[in-house]
Structure formats: structure tokens, C-alpha cells
Amino acid sequence: MLEDMNPWWRWKNWEEKDIDLIKFKDFKINWVPSWIKEISLQPFSLNFVLGPRQVGKTTGIKLLVSYLIKNKVECNSIIYVNCDLLASFKELRKLLEKVRKYRFIILDEVTSIEYWWKVIKGFIDLGFFKDSVLIVSGSSFIKVGKFIESFTGRRGKGKDVTVLPLDFKNFVKLLGYKKYQLNEALREYFKLGGFPRSINRDPTFFQDFIGSIEKEFARIDKSYKIAREIIYQIILKAPSSLSYNTIGNSIGISHVTVRDYLEVMEDLFLLKIAYHKEKRKINFRKDKKIFLRDPFILQAFSTALDVTPRGGTLHEWVVQEHLYRKFGEIYYWKNKVEIDCIANGLKIEVKVGKPSRRYPKGVSIIEEENLPNFLYKLQ
Questions:
Q1: Are residues 250 and 184 in the same domain?
Q2: Structural domain count of the chain
């Protein structure tokens, strides 16, 4: 099995036999992701690569392997393991006992294994990887993020790398739009989003994406049906702010269950919750603004659930996501008027159509015609 997962051990032309790189080269539009440069390649290092399913983590890792080999790293010093194929932490432990001498050890989708972190931490504490670079990837912050702190002092030169769908500026550059074509580019971005397969208009991606989300919920023993119903309510009522009670009452579940599922979906990089903020105070009890994190995610779920978002929803959601990526925070404010986005001192109201009211001093109004330029400059 390991030889099949590591074709570079056997063939010089391994890139022509690797299924992930074959698919990559078959894309009309492809690119080498910049995030692979963020991974530390100096021993000892424990790197975590996190991001949603279908975003291209595995392909990026294979491109990194190609880069290493082209830069004279010995082929037989690199091992890649698809952890989806391992049944338990016991299998992971046996595997690590075999591969601990490798210079580069890549554990892809390790979150599929329960107690993975205990096994890796134990081997690090025994000093088994002191001359190695470990690259650990996962699609769920639930099963990686909350355990990262347990590796404090055990990371060496390792980095945390988050892989997300392309933002608008990189979408523009990739597809070769000129600055005078930004309006057209944004219309396409709204249709396609930033996933590699959605950008390439892969007709099978919609079903594969939804299927991958169903599998993630099955892994953590959660009901995908409940998740669907919650997402339906979010899309139906967006871009209005919502309470957990409002969502729960609409589908007959408790506010505690709603909160639990929203946190799971946040950890799966599907959505983000913007809390109410007034001056410096964050109010976690007030209604929340909840947004899906990429246009394709909205397209996929609105199609699957047969629900149409209200006008202006995607405009607001894209601004919220881009502000969050830029500043690492996103809030909103509501009193007599509502301010859609608050981040790093910026106060922004997103408007499709002309503003119909006056806003407090310091609030920037982003109208539809100015949105492409705002997003492009933001990143």
C-alpha cells in the first residue's frame, strides 16, 4: 500500500502516474498554491495544514513533494500516507514505528483517525522525529485545532498553514482579468467561488462537495439532516441577523443544539459567525450574523436545499469573509441602523442599490459598483 501511495519511490516519471497530479494537469486552469511555501522544511518541524475538504490540500502537498525532488531531495526520504485508509490509531502507531527514519513524513487527513494526536505526541516525546519534517493535514479544526495547543514546545520550527478557497484578488489574477474588468470578474467569482474544481467548472464537483460534507458529519457522529436544516434557515433569512432560538424554533430543535452544530460547521470552514459588537464590548447573546465562507458553498447548498438567497446576501457575505481573512476578526452592530461589518476599526455597510438612510459618522458605504475595487484593494 505504501508503494502505491509513494510512486516517486519507483518511477522517475511518477508525476504522470500520480492520480492527484494527473487531475491537476487535466485542469484547464491550474496553479501552484502559494501556501506550500509557508510550510517549514527544516528539521525538526511539525507543520499543521488545515482547510476545508476539496480545497486542494492533497494536490498542494503532492506539488510540494515534486518541488523537493526537483531540488535534489532523495526520493526515498519522503513518505506520504493517506490516513483515510488507516482504520485506527493502532494502525497509525505501527505505521509511524516503520517510517520514523524518513526525512519528510506527510500524514494527509489525519483527522480521520481517533486519538491521532496522542500517537504523534508520544513519538515526538521519545525523540523519534528529531531529524524529520512532519506535515500533518486535516479538514476539520474540531479534530486538529483543539489539539494543537497540546503540542506546545513540541513543534520545533513547524508552522500552522490554513488553506482556503481563492479570494477575489487572486481569482482575478489567476483568470487574467484586467483592472477595468473587475465588475465582470466579480460576477464570475460570485458564480464560481474559489475552489479549484469550481473554477474549472467541473460538473461533478457539486455532488462531490456535498458528499464530502455528509461524510464529515458521519465521522463525528452528527446528523447531516440537522445541519442541512440549519443552513437552509441561514440562507432563507440572510442577510438578516439571527438568534439560535430563531433557527431552533423554525426546525424544532433547541438553541443549544443549534449552537453546537454552528460551531461544528465553523470548524469545518463552512461558515463564520459574526457577533454583535458595540464599542469594545462583544455581546455573544445578541443575534448573530452568520455567513457561508465562499460563493461556491452558497451555490452548492442553495441548489441542494432548493432555497434562493435574498438580493445582496452574497455581496455582504463576500465582504465579511474578506475582512475576516484580512484582519482575523469580523463583527456587526445594530441599533436604530445596522452596520454589516466591523473589523480592525473599519465600519462598513454593504449596499445593493442606493442607501436609503443616513449612517453614523465613520461608516463607509460600499455600493455594488464600488465593491469589486474595494475587494481587490483589500487583499
A1: yes
A2: 2
Q: Quick one: how far is CA 262 from the chain centroid?
A: 15
The answer to whether residue 357 scores a pLDDT higher than 80 is: no
Amino acid, res. 171: F
Verdict on whether the full-model pTM lies above 0.90: yes
**Lookup: cell for 89:** 490509531
Distance CA 80, CA 99 (A): 10
Contact 238, 310 (CB under 8 A): yes
Cell of 23: 487531475
Helices of type H across the chain: 2-5, 19-26, 57-70, 89-99, 116-125, 145-148, 168-175, 182-192, 196-199, 205-219, 224-237, 244-251, 255-267, 295-305, 313-327, 371-378
Take residue 324 and report the three cell numbers written for it.
475576516
- Name the residue range of residue 242's domain: 168-378
β partners of residue 82: 108
Residues 6+ apart with CB under 8 A from 247: 230, 233, 234, 255, 258
Q: pLDDT for 106-145, tens place per residue?
A: 999 887 888 899 999 999 999 999 999 999 998 877 666 6
